[in-house]
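Following up on my earlier message about adenosine-5'-diphosphate. Here are the inputs again, as you asked, copied directly from the submission form:
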Amino acid sequence: MSVAKDKLFIDGAWIDSQEKKTIEIKSPIDGAKLGSAQIATSEDVNKAVEAASSAADKWGRTHFVERAEIMHKAADIFEKRFEELVNLLIMEQGKPKADAQIESQGCVNYFRDAAEDIKRLQTDMLPSIDPKKRVYTIRQPYGVFGVITPWNFPFDIPCFIIAPVLASGNTLVFKPAEQTPLCGAKIVECLEKAGFPKGVVNLVQGPGEITGEAMSANGEINAIAFTGSIETGRRIAERAGKTIKHLLLELGGNGPVIVLDDADLELATEAIALSCYMNAGQVCNAGERILVTKQMNDRLTKSLLQKTAQIKLGDPRLPETTMGPLIDETVASKIDSHIKDAVEKGAKLTVGGKRATGFPTKLYFEPTILNDVSPDMLISREETFGPVCPLIECENIEEAAQIANQTDYGLMSSVFTKDLAKGIKLAELIKTGTVAINTPSNYWEGRLPWGGMRKSGLGRQGGIQSIISMTQLKTIILDLG
Ligand code: ADP
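Thanks, got it. Here's what our run produced:
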């Protein structure tokens, strides 16, 4: 029995792809086959875009109250199928049940929020230099929106984007990550039942090099929202540039977490453990670099060691498990290579650092603490995306800010200090789209403005900000005669 539809959803129907080639999905938990997804060729993508394009004008003109009703119906369906969502998410992505429940609830919340946000959109009436003129602005959808998403939050990230895309009156061509196509198909199964008109929601599946590239090259897609790596974001932007697409890019982070001398040790420890180990570290706003002052380093290391010992790595279906397996071998070997590079360059492996034994797959990675990490190591410069807590010692606030700003990334950071003036000073110095003070770097509220500085992305999303970013401004000038 299939856990989710394996076909493409185009123009209101589940159809076979042109070539019927498939991606087989195995659970990271035990390697058992879970299901499959048919790969969309560029012809299939064209078909999906044509359907979305034909539906765009009517959906864009549908009154927002009517659109909001359908959005709420979608939320009701996600709510009804909650257990099914949670179970699939655990099996396909490998996160523990408690985390899978929070993520699945996100599907409900994003659709309800977007349904209400669209009702609160404000535009301006502007003074004109001509006394006979009246000028005002409205916001209108872009038309066809391509949405390309990663595997680490296969419900949360797509719904965070898709809900405002649809509420804003755009039509959708959605490509989930090839590692988690079943969760992507499940979202669309729920949307199918909500009553979106034919062609408004379309699903294509497949690898980035085939299906994703076909999307970014397609001239009828007016905008793309993408979450993933800098490298892929760059490729999408290059292709999208040729057809002048509007872009929203979230390209990951290298979250600096700064712990000053006067930090609340317990608070900082809890927050760092959460931001380094949640979802086995496969989070774009994870704590990827812990910058700690000399005076605090030993105490923080000891405290983190105790906290790390409490992490229960195991089968994510078991209630006691707090950390599950990694998604696949590509991710696991990148973590291996970052740790190897760090140790070769002088870092000290305090705990963990390797695959755990005694599990059905090699994807269970021990929670890891590395000390004496320096900014030149791969682990400091790139996104490691694993359950690793690398500590970098620094002298003072100025050095902390300088190291924090040394990478290409600029998504999220956090600062721990009891001195709010210092916290604010750092918050203003660090070049990340969000800075959390005395709060974990992976604190998440989907309604807050979200996006990266520097190479971590383009544009802002979250709540009303998504609606603004997913609509375009039109100026209307009226002459009173
Ligand atoms: P990650 O490293 O998290 O897997 P990627 O950026 O490789 O991040 O992938 C995120 C999403 O981007 C996935 O849906 C993937 O299929 C898609 N993707 C990868 N390469 C391309 C590409 N060249 N063009 C468009 N989409 C792509």
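One observation from looking it over: The pocket of adenosine-5'-diphosphate is lined by residues 148-150, 175, 177-178, 207-209, 212-213, 216, 228-229, 232, 235-236 (CB under 6 Å). Hope that helps, and feel free to reply on this thread.
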